[in-house]
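Reopening this one. Same input as before:
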Amino acid sequence: MYSKAEITRLRQAFWTAFGQYMAPVPSAEGDTTNWINYKTGVKNVYFRMQADKARASIAIELTHPDAGIRELFWEQFLELKTLLHETLGETWTWAPDTTDAHGQPLSRIYYDLPGVNLFNRDDWPALISFFKPRLMALDTFWADAQYSFDALK
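Same output, byte for byte:
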């Protein structure tokens, strides 16, 4: 079992290593990108990566506090579902009404990798191999799709 301090240290070490690994990788538009804290440019639309002792997950999260507006964003993503899955090269799970760890409502489009442990350094290559191509594919998708959300800003 890990102490809180060790968990914090390992979590920071992984995300720092991942950020350094991704730093030289340009975005789909050729720009420098902060891959760890990816900016979609649309309020309440996030690309999130999470990992813990049992799994890793990458997601598009729609967190607008107004359920009606969040639904409009969700419907726009549904319009782009085929493009998203073609760009990703895989089918993700769609959860229109869920909550985050703090009980806040959100809509989520995600893909999980079970059986990996962020706190085991031997799993870090698998985690990086999971996150990198999916994050880059999300960036490629977003380079085209972001303009579909201009009217909703």
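So the earlier flakiness isn't reproducible anymore. For the record, The longest strand covers residues 105-114.
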